[in-house]
Amino acid sequence: MSQLDSVELAPDELEALRLVDQLGLQQQQAALQMQVSRQTLANLVKAARFKVVDCLLNQKALHIQAQEKISSD
Question: Are 46 and 52 in contact (CB under 8 A)?
Answer without folding.
Answer: no
